[in-house]
Amino acid sequence: MKSFVVLAPQTAASLAPALRQRATLHGTQVDFALVEQRDADFDAQDPKHAHSVLVQVRAFSCNYREKARFLDIAQKPAGKGYLVLGSEFAGTVLKTGPAVHHLRVGDRVCGNGSVEPGQDQPGLTTQRASSERQVHHQDKLFRLPDSMSLVEGAAFSIGAQTAYSMVRRLPAEGMQHVAITAAASNTSLFAIRALLARGCQVHALTTSASLEPHLRKLGVQHCCVLGRDGSYPHLLQNHLANLGLSGFDAVLDPFSDIYLRKLLPFVRRFGSYVTCGVYQQFAEQQPDAFVHEGLTVAEVFSLLIRKSISLVGNNLGTTADLEQAVADYAAGRLHINLDTVVTDGDLGRFIERSYLAPDRLGKVVFDYGEPAATPRPAQQEAALA
Protein backbone atom coordinates (compact mmCIF):
# COMPACT_ATOMS: atom_id res chain seq x y z
CA MET A 1 0.00 0.00 0.00
CA LYS A 2 1.11 3.59 -0.64
CA SER A 3 1.56 6.31 1.97
CA PHE A 4 2.46 10.00 1.77
CA VAL A 5 5.48 10.59 4.02
CA VAL A 6 8.07 13.14 5.07
CA LEU A 7 11.56 11.68 4.91
CA ALA A 8 14.21 12.12 7.57
CA PRO A 9 17.33 13.80 6.11
CA GLN A 10 19.56 10.71 5.92
CA THR A 11 16.81 8.64 4.32
CA ALA A 12 16.10 11.40 1.81
CA ALA A 13 19.78 11.63 0.89
CA SER A 14 19.85 7.92 0.02
CA LEU A 15 17.02 8.28 -2.51
CA ALA A 16 17.34 9.48 -6.09
CA PRO A 17 15.70 12.90 -6.67
CA ALA A 18 13.13 11.22 -8.92
CA LEU A 19 11.79 9.29 -5.92
CA ARG A 20 11.12 12.31 -3.71
CA GLN A 21 9.75 15.84 -3.85
CA ARG A 22 11.65 18.64 -2.09
CA ALA A 23 10.11 21.84 -0.76
CA THR A 24 11.25 24.65 1.51
CA LEU A 25 8.86 25.58 4.31
CA HIS A 26 9.66 28.25 6.91
CA GLY A 27 13.29 28.09 5.87
CA THR A 28 13.54 24.32 6.32
CA GLN A 29 14.21 21.90 3.47
CA VAL A 30 11.66 19.10 3.61
CA ASP A 31 11.62 15.94 1.49
CA PHE A 32 8.34 14.18 0.76
CA ALA A 33 7.60 10.93 -1.05
CA LEU A 34 4.94 8.40 -1.84
CA VAL A 35 6.27 5.09 -0.51
CA GLU A 36 5.09 1.51 -0.61
CA GLN A 37 4.49 -0.07 2.79
CA ARG A 38 3.35 -3.46 3.97
CA ASP A 39 -0.43 -3.81 3.94
CA ALA A 40 -2.28 -3.31 7.22
CA ASP A 41 -2.75 -6.51 9.21
CA PHE A 42 -6.39 -7.48 9.67
CA ASP A 43 -7.73 -10.83 10.87
CA ALA A 44 -11.49 -10.83 11.38
CA GLN A 45 -11.17 -13.90 13.60
CA ASP A 46 -8.71 -12.24 15.97
CA PRO A 47 -10.60 -11.00 19.08
CA LYS A 48 -8.68 -7.73 18.99
CA HIS A 49 -10.32 -7.00 15.61
CA ALA A 50 -13.86 -7.91 16.67
CA HIS A 51 -15.00 -4.27 16.53
CA SER A 52 -12.57 -3.22 13.79
CA VAL A 53 -12.97 -2.31 10.14
CA LEU A 54 -10.46 -2.58 7.29
CA VAL A 55 -10.71 0.44 4.97
CA GLN A 56 -9.31 0.95 1.48
CA VAL A 57 -8.46 4.67 1.31
CA ARG A 58 -9.23 6.35 -2.00
CA ALA A 59 -8.46 9.99 -1.12
CA PHE A 60 -6.78 11.96 1.67
CA SER A 61 -5.90 15.50 2.71
CA CYS A 62 -3.58 17.18 5.20
CA ASN A 63 -4.22 19.87 7.80
CA TYR A 64 -2.34 22.95 8.96
CA ARG A 65 -1.17 21.37 12.23
CA GLU A 66 0.88 18.76 10.33
CA LYS A 67 3.56 21.35 9.61
CA ALA A 68 4.85 20.98 13.16
CA ARG A 69 5.13 17.22 12.72
CA PHE A 70 7.12 17.21 9.50
CA LEU A 71 9.32 20.17 10.41
CA ASP A 72 10.35 18.30 13.55
CA ILE A 73 11.63 15.28 11.61
CA ALA A 74 13.15 17.35 8.79
CA GLN A 75 15.30 19.35 11.21
CA LYS A 76 17.14 16.34 12.63
CA PRO A 77 20.21 15.94 10.37
CA ALA A 78 21.05 12.47 11.68
CA GLY A 79 17.48 11.25 11.43
CA LYS A 80 16.51 8.14 9.49
CA GLY A 81 13.18 6.73 8.36
CA TYR A 82 10.00 8.61 7.61
CA LEU A 83 6.75 9.86 9.09
CA VAL A 84 3.39 9.05 7.51
CA LEU A 85 1.19 12.13 7.08
CA GLY A 86 -2.49 12.84 6.53
CA SER A 87 -5.36 13.96 8.78
CA GLU A 88 -8.47 13.19 6.72
CA PHE A 89 -9.41 10.33 4.44
CA ALA A 90 -12.30 8.70 2.64
CA GLY A 91 -12.53 5.15 1.35
CA THR A 92 -14.50 1.94 1.21
CA VAL A 93 -14.94 -0.86 3.74
CA LEU A 94 -13.10 -4.05 2.72
CA LYS A 95 -13.66 -6.24 5.80
CA THR A 96 -15.36 -6.01 9.19
CA GLY A 97 -14.96 -7.80 12.50
CA PRO A 98 -17.82 -9.99 13.77
CA ALA A 99 -18.98 -7.40 16.35
CA VAL A 100 -19.23 -4.53 13.86
CA HIS A 101 -22.91 -3.58 13.71
CA HIS A 102 -23.34 -0.38 11.69
CA LEU A 103 -20.94 -0.78 8.76
CA ARG A 104 -20.86 -3.30 5.91
CA VAL A 105 -18.40 -4.27 3.20
CA GLY A 106 -18.65 -1.70 0.41
CA ASP A 107 -19.76 1.19 2.62
CA ARG A 108 -18.07 4.51 1.89
CA VAL A 109 -16.61 6.08 5.03
CA CYS A 110 -14.54 8.92 6.43
CA GLY A 111 -13.01 9.45 9.86
CA ASN A 112 -15.08 10.42 12.89
CA GLY A 113 -12.98 12.60 15.23
CA SER A 114 -15.63 12.75 17.91
CA VAL A 115 -14.73 13.99 21.40
CA GLU A 116 -17.47 13.05 23.86
CA PRO A 117 -17.67 12.29 27.60
CA GLY A 118 -16.85 8.69 28.46
CA GLN A 119 -15.47 7.91 25.01
CA ASP A 120 -12.72 5.27 24.85
CA GLN A 121 -10.94 6.76 21.82
CA PRO A 122 -11.60 10.52 21.65
CA GLY A 123 -10.04 12.66 18.94
CA LEU A 124 -8.85 12.16 15.39
CA THR A 125 -9.31 8.76 13.81
CA THR A 126 -5.70 8.77 12.59
CA GLN A 127 -2.67 10.95 11.93
CA ARG A 128 -1.62 8.58 9.12
CA ALA A 129 -4.60 9.20 6.86
CA SER A 130 -2.62 8.81 3.63
CA SER A 131 -2.01 5.08 4.16
CA GLU A 132 -4.06 3.23 1.56
CA ARG A 133 -5.22 0.49 3.92
CA GLN A 134 -6.18 1.23 7.50
CA VAL A 135 -7.77 -0.61 10.43
CA HIS A 136 -10.03 1.38 12.76
CA HIS A 137 -12.60 0.81 15.45
CA GLN A 138 -16.10 1.10 14.00
CA ASP A 139 -16.89 4.09 16.23
CA LYS A 140 -14.09 6.11 14.62
CA LEU A 141 -15.64 5.80 11.15
CA PHE A 142 -18.61 7.62 9.67
CA ARG A 143 -20.68 6.46 6.70
CA LEU A 144 -20.80 9.00 3.88
CA PRO A 145 -24.08 9.87 2.17
CA ASP A 146 -24.48 8.61 -1.39
CA SER A 147 -24.49 12.18 -2.69
CA MET A 148 -20.98 12.92 -1.35
CA SER A 149 -18.00 11.83 -3.43
CA LEU A 150 -14.97 10.22 -1.82
CA VAL A 151 -12.89 13.25 -2.78
CA GLU A 152 -15.35 15.49 -0.93
CA GLY A 153 -15.37 13.06 1.99
CA ALA A 154 -11.59 13.41 2.31
CA ALA A 155 -12.05 17.17 2.82
CA PHE A 156 -15.06 17.07 5.11
CA SER A 157 -14.89 15.52 8.53
CA ILE A 158 -12.48 17.65 10.60
CA GLY A 159 -13.59 21.03 9.30
CA ALA A 160 -17.29 20.24 9.40
CA GLN A 161 -17.21 18.55 12.80
CA THR A 162 -15.21 21.38 14.35
CA ALA A 163 -17.25 24.19 12.80
CA TYR A 164 -20.60 22.69 13.71
CA SER A 165 -19.41 22.10 17.26
CA MET A 166 -18.33 25.74 17.55
CA VAL A 167 -21.69 26.97 16.26
CA ARG A 168 -23.55 24.58 18.59
CA ARG A 169 -21.69 26.01 21.57
CA LEU A 170 -23.01 29.50 20.92
CA PRO A 171 -26.02 30.55 23.02
CA ALA A 172 -29.34 29.66 21.43
CA GLU A 173 -30.55 33.27 21.52
CA GLY A 174 -29.11 36.68 20.72
CA MET A 175 -26.47 35.54 18.25
CA GLN A 176 -27.57 37.47 15.17
CA HIS A 177 -24.24 39.10 14.25
CA VAL A 178 -21.32 36.66 14.34
CA ALA A 179 -17.76 37.46 13.24
CA ILE A 180 -15.53 34.77 11.78
CA THR A 181 -11.77 35.31 11.80
CA ALA A 182 -9.33 33.95 9.20
CA ALA A 183 -12.43 33.65 7.07
CA ALA A 184 -10.71 31.77 4.25
CA SER A 185 -9.32 29.01 6.52
CA ASN A 186 -10.86 25.57 6.15
CA THR A 187 -12.63 25.60 9.51
CA SER A 188 -13.98 29.10 8.94
CA LEU A 189 -15.36 28.21 5.51
CA PHE A 190 -17.42 25.44 7.12
CA ALA A 191 -18.45 27.73 9.97
CA ILE A 192 -19.69 30.36 7.51
CA ARG A 193 -22.03 27.82 5.94
CA ALA A 194 -23.18 26.53 9.33
CA LEU A 195 -24.02 30.03 10.54
CA LEU A 196 -25.83 30.95 7.34
CA ALA A 197 -27.92 27.79 7.70
CA ARG A 198 -28.79 28.98 11.21
CA GLY A 199 -29.91 32.38 9.88
CA CYS A 200 -27.07 34.44 11.34
CA GLN A 201 -25.57 37.59 9.87
CA VAL A 202 -21.97 36.59 9.13
CA HIS A 203 -19.11 39.10 9.36
CA ALA A 204 -16.07 37.64 7.60
CA LEU A 205 -12.76 39.04 8.84
CA THR A 206 -9.69 38.51 6.66
CA THR A 207 -6.31 40.09 6.04
CA SER A 208 -6.51 39.34 2.30
CA ALA A 209 -8.57 41.78 0.22
CA SER A 210 -8.37 39.46 -2.81
CA LEU A 211 -10.51 36.88 -1.01
CA GLU A 212 -13.46 39.17 -0.37
CA PRO A 213 -15.24 38.37 -3.69
CA HIS A 214 -14.96 34.64 -2.96
CA LEU A 215 -16.39 35.07 0.52
CA ARG A 216 -19.34 37.06 -0.79
CA LYS A 217 -20.08 34.27 -3.27
CA LEU A 218 -20.49 31.96 -0.28
CA GLY A 219 -23.31 34.20 0.95
CA VAL A 220 -21.37 36.34 3.44
CA GLN A 221 -23.26 39.56 4.02
CA HIS A 222 -20.47 41.62 5.60
CA CYS A 223 -16.71 41.51 4.96
CA CYS A 224 -14.03 43.46 6.78
CA VAL A 225 -10.46 43.43 5.48
CA LEU A 226 -8.10 43.93 8.41
CA GLY A 227 -4.88 45.80 7.75
CA ARG A 228 -1.66 44.28 9.02
CA ASP A 229 -0.24 47.73 9.85
CA GLY A 230 -2.01 48.42 13.14
CA SER A 231 -5.08 49.92 11.47
CA TYR A 232 -7.42 47.08 12.45
CA PRO A 233 -9.07 48.93 15.42
CA HIS A 234 -10.11 51.79 13.15
CA LEU A 235 -11.32 49.39 10.44
CA LEU A 236 -13.38 47.35 12.91
CA GLN A 237 -14.86 50.45 14.52
CA ASN A 238 -15.94 51.76 11.10
CA HIS A 239 -17.30 48.36 10.11
CA LEU A 240 -19.55 48.19 13.18
CA ALA A 241 -20.54 51.86 13.07
CA ASN A 242 -21.62 51.62 9.44
CA LEU A 243 -24.02 48.84 10.44
CA GLY A 244 -25.25 50.59 13.57
CA LEU A 245 -23.79 47.92 15.86
CA SER A 246 -22.14 48.38 19.24
CA GLY A 247 -20.27 45.07 18.91
CA PHE A 248 -20.41 41.53 17.61
CA ASP A 249 -22.74 39.13 19.37
CA ALA A 250 -20.10 36.42 19.02
CA VAL A 251 -16.77 35.57 17.42
CA LEU A 252 -15.74 32.20 16.00
CA ASP A 253 -11.95 32.06 15.81
CA PRO A 254 -9.63 29.25 14.66
CA PHE A 255 -6.47 31.21 15.64
CA SER A 256 -6.85 32.59 19.16
CA ASP A 257 -3.22 33.74 19.47
CA ILE A 258 -3.77 36.16 16.58
CA TYR A 259 -7.27 37.47 17.09
CA LEU A 260 -8.42 37.15 20.72
CA ARG A 261 -6.43 40.15 21.95
CA LYS A 262 -7.53 42.23 18.95
CA LEU A 263 -11.23 41.41 18.79
CA LEU A 264 -12.33 41.17 22.41
CA PRO A 265 -12.95 44.95 22.66
CA PHE A 266 -15.40 44.60 19.76
CA VAL A 267 -17.56 41.90 21.38
CA ARG A 268 -20.70 43.23 23.04
CA ARG A 269 -21.49 42.76 26.72
CA PHE A 270 -22.69 39.19 27.45
CA GLY A 271 -21.34 38.11 24.07
CA SER A 272 -19.45 34.89 23.27
CA TYR A 273 -15.99 34.06 21.93
CA VAL A 274 -15.39 30.50 20.70
CA THR A 275 -11.95 29.41 19.55
CA CYS A 276 -10.54 26.08 18.36
CA GLY A 277 -6.82 26.58 17.82
CA VAL A 278 -3.65 28.63 17.55
CA TYR A 279 -1.65 29.85 14.57
CA GLN A 280 1.92 29.70 15.84
CA GLN A 281 2.21 25.98 16.44
CA PHE A 282 5.92 25.70 15.71
CA ALA A 283 8.96 27.78 16.56
CA GLU A 284 10.17 28.03 12.94
CA GLN A 285 7.49 30.53 11.97
CA GLN A 286 8.87 33.98 11.27
CA PRO A 287 7.95 36.61 13.87
CA ASP A 288 4.92 38.56 12.74
CA ALA A 289 4.16 41.89 14.41
CA PHE A 290 0.48 41.57 13.55
CA VAL A 291 0.21 38.32 15.50
CA HIS A 292 1.43 39.96 18.69
CA GLU A 293 -0.62 43.16 18.53
CA GLY A 294 -3.56 43.75 20.86
CA LEU A 295 -4.40 43.59 24.54
CA THR A 296 -2.11 42.14 27.17
CA VAL A 297 -3.16 38.89 28.84
CA ALA A 298 -4.17 40.84 31.97
CA GLU A 299 -6.30 43.18 29.87
CA VAL A 300 -7.95 40.21 28.14
CA PHE A 301 -9.14 38.69 31.40
CA SER A 302 -10.15 42.04 32.79
CA LEU A 303 -12.32 42.70 29.74
CA LEU A 304 -13.82 39.20 29.83
CA ILE A 305 -14.89 39.79 33.42
CA ARG A 306 -16.08 43.38 33.07
CA LYS A 307 -18.21 42.62 30.00
CA SER A 308 -19.32 39.13 31.13
CA ILE A 309 -18.09 37.62 27.86
CA SER A 310 -18.13 33.82 27.61
CA LEU A 311 -14.81 32.41 26.38
CA VAL A 312 -15.16 28.85 25.03
CA GLY A 313 -12.38 26.50 23.94
CA ASN A 314 -13.44 23.88 21.41
CA ASN A 315 -11.71 20.68 20.30
CA LEU A 316 -13.24 18.90 17.29
CA GLY A 317 -16.87 17.93 18.02
CA THR A 318 -19.36 15.11 18.52
CA THR A 319 -20.86 12.51 16.23
CA ALA A 320 -24.08 14.54 16.36
CA ASP A 321 -22.18 17.56 15.00
CA LEU A 322 -20.97 15.46 12.06
CA GLU A 323 -24.49 14.17 11.50
CA GLN A 324 -25.87 17.73 11.43
CA ALA A 325 -23.22 18.76 8.92
CA VAL A 326 -24.11 15.81 6.69
CA ALA A 327 -27.80 16.73 6.96
CA ASP A 328 -27.04 20.28 5.83
CA TYR A 329 -24.89 18.94 2.99
CA ALA A 330 -27.69 16.65 1.84
CA ALA A 331 -30.16 19.55 2.00
CA GLY A 332 -27.88 21.79 -0.08
CA ARG A 333 -27.08 24.15 2.79
CA LEU A 334 -23.43 23.10 3.14
CA HIS A 335 -20.87 23.19 0.36
CA ILE A 336 -17.45 21.56 0.58
CA ASN A 337 -14.76 23.91 -0.68
CA LEU A 338 -12.14 22.10 -2.77
CA ASP A 339 -9.14 24.15 -3.86
CA THR A 340 -7.37 21.43 -5.84
CA VAL A 341 -7.80 17.72 -6.48
CA VAL A 342 -4.60 15.94 -7.49
CA THR A 343 -5.64 12.97 -9.62
CA ASP A 344 -2.48 12.05 -11.51
CA GLY A 345 -0.08 11.32 -8.67
CA ASP A 346 1.48 14.79 -8.92
CA LEU A 347 2.96 14.97 -5.42
CA GLY A 348 4.66 18.30 -6.11
CA ARG A 349 1.33 19.90 -6.98
CA PHE A 350 -0.24 18.49 -3.81
CA ILE A 351 2.54 19.89 -1.61
CA GLU A 352 2.56 23.28 -3.32
CA ARG A 353 -1.19 23.84 -3.01
CA SER A 354 -1.42 22.37 0.50
CA TYR A 355 1.42 24.31 2.13
CA LEU A 356 2.83 27.02 -0.14
CA ALA A 357 -0.08 28.64 -1.99
CA PRO A 358 -1.19 31.95 -0.38
CA ASP A 359 -4.30 32.01 -2.58
CA ARG A 360 -5.55 28.56 -1.51
CA LEU A 361 -9.27 28.54 -0.75
CA GLY A 362 -10.54 25.20 0.55
CA LYS A 363 -8.96 21.78 0.93
CA VAL A 364 -6.37 20.14 -1.32
CA VAL A 365 -7.15 16.46 -1.84
CA PHE A 366 -4.91 13.69 -3.15
CA ASP A 367 -7.02 11.17 -5.06
CA TYR A 368 -5.51 7.68 -5.29
CA GLY A 369 -8.33 6.48 -7.51
CA GLU A 370 -8.69 2.75 -7.97
CA PRO A 371 -5.91 0.72 -6.29
CA ALA A 372 -3.23 -0.70 -8.53
CA ALA A 373 -0.25 -2.93 -7.82
CA THR A 374 2.83 -0.72 -8.25
CA PRO A 375 6.24 -2.31 -7.68
CA ARG A 376 8.49 -0.40 -5.34
CA PRO A 377 11.81 0.74 -6.92
CA ALA A 378 14.76 -1.24 -5.62
CA GLN A 379 16.52 1.91 -4.38
CA GLN A 380 13.47 2.94 -2.39
CA GLU A 381 13.16 -0.58 -0.97
CA ALA A 382 16.73 -0.47 0.33
CA ALA A 383 16.51 3.05 1.74
CA LEU A 384 13.30 2.41 3.65
CA ALA A 385 14.27 -0.99 5.02
Residue-averaged pLDDT, rounded? 89
Which residues sit in consecutive blocks of at least 5 with pLDDT less than 50? 372-385
The count of DSSP E runs of length 2 or more, i.e. the number of strands, is 17
- Reading the helices and strands in chain order gives EHEEEHEEEEEHHEHEHEHEHEHEHEHEH
Shape type: globular
Question: How many distinct helices?
Answer: 12
Task: Name the beta content range.
Answer: 25-35%
Biggest sheet: strands, sense, closure? 7 strands, mixed
Domain Enoyl reductase (ER): 27-336
Organism: Chitinimonas prasina
InterPro entries: ADH-like_N, ER, GroES-like_sf, NAD(P)-bd_dom_sf, Zn-ADH-like_protein
Protein name: Enoyl reductase (ER) domain-containing protein
Explain what the structure shows.
By secondary structure, this protein is α/β, with parallel strands linked by helices. Helix content is 28%, strand content 25%. The protein contains twelve helices and 17 strands. Strands 4, 6, 7, 8, 9, 16 and 17 form a seven-stranded mixed β-sheet that branches. Helix 4 packs across helix 5. It is globular.
